[in-house]
Design goal:
- The protein is of the alpha+beta class and 230 residues long.
- The chain has one domain: Leucyl/phenylalanyl-tRNA-protein transferase, C-terminal domain (Aminopeptidase), CATH 3.40.630.70.
- The chain has eight helices and ten strands.
- A seven-stranded mixed beta sheet has the order 4-5-6-7-8-3-9, sandwiched between helices. Strands 1-2-10 form a three-stranded antiparallel beta sheet.
- The radius of gyration is 17 Å and the shape is globular.
- The chain starts with 5 loop residues before the first helix and ends with a strand.
- The relative contact order is 0.24.
Length: 230
């Protein structure tokens, strides 16, 4: 990805596309433009009773942006059922640069002083582009997502992009929308400003307010268009 920097990466997101590598050890990176896009409606996150109880109990300590590189590395690591990843070193470096610019964030779950789950993504306007999540303890990534959505709602965000649909995301309320629909939502979100660290928002206080919610329907697999960029 020689000559391709963090501002170029932001421009990709602003036009509705994103990069992926073929594999962790691959030098090749592609621009992906799915025909169907995964999103989580910010008023439609599905929280079952068990998950709500876990959040309210404070099983995990929630931190934000304290271990961004650690979260990305954990997302890039192999795991049962995910032996390879689309996050190669070049992509990892670019997101670290975005983080330094205040454009990429992590929501982290800690337990006993250990990072046990979390997610990271890119912030542009009032849109948050979720990139990846990981979990080393039951429900850790789900708890991170609950806190992310609470933060985005409080901060005035209008779009939470998940890129693709997976069974895991479907269980949390993700839905699939057309490329044109996504582009329209993205344009509106980019006209606004979302605050990732909204004044007065405390994860400890927010967790106490979480209650079970209704299911949100959504199904299907995303078709995609890819362009080679390196």
């Amino acid at each position: 990805m020689s000559g391709f920097g963090p501002l170029d990466l932001l421009n990709l997101y602003a036009t509705g596309v994103f990069p992926m590598a073929e594999a962790r050890d691959s030098d090749d990176v592609f621009i992906v433009d799915p025909e169907e896009r995964g999103v989580i409606p910010l008023d439609g996150l599905k929280i079952n009773k068990s998950l709500a109880k876990t959040v309210r109990a404070g099983v995990f300590e929630i931190r934000v942006n304290t271990a961004f590189s650690g979260v990305v590395s954990a997302c890039a690591a192999s795991a049962p059922g995910r032996e390879d990843t689309w996050i190669n070193p070049g992509i990892e470096y670019l997101y670290a640069e975005l983080h330094q610019l205040g454009r990429a964030h992590s929501v982290e779950c800690w337990q006993g002083g250990e990072l046990v789950g979390g997610l990271y993504g890119v912030h542009l306007g009032a849109a948050f582009f979720g990139e990846s999540m990981f979990s080393r303890k039951t429900d850790a990534s789900k708890v991170a997502l609950v806190h992310l959505v609470g933060r985005l709602n409080t901060g005035g965000f209008k779009l939470l992009d998940t890129q693709f649909i997976t069974p895991h995301l479907l269980s949390l309320g993700a839905v699939e929308i057309s490329r044109n629909n996504y582009q329209a939502r993205l344009r509106k979100a980019l006209e606004l400003v979302g605050e990732f660290e909204p004044f007065g928002f405390l994860d400890v206080d927010y967790s106490k307010s979480v209650r079970p919610s209704s299911a949100v329907s959504g199904a299907g697999r995303a078709k995609q268009s890819i362009t080679h960029i390196s």
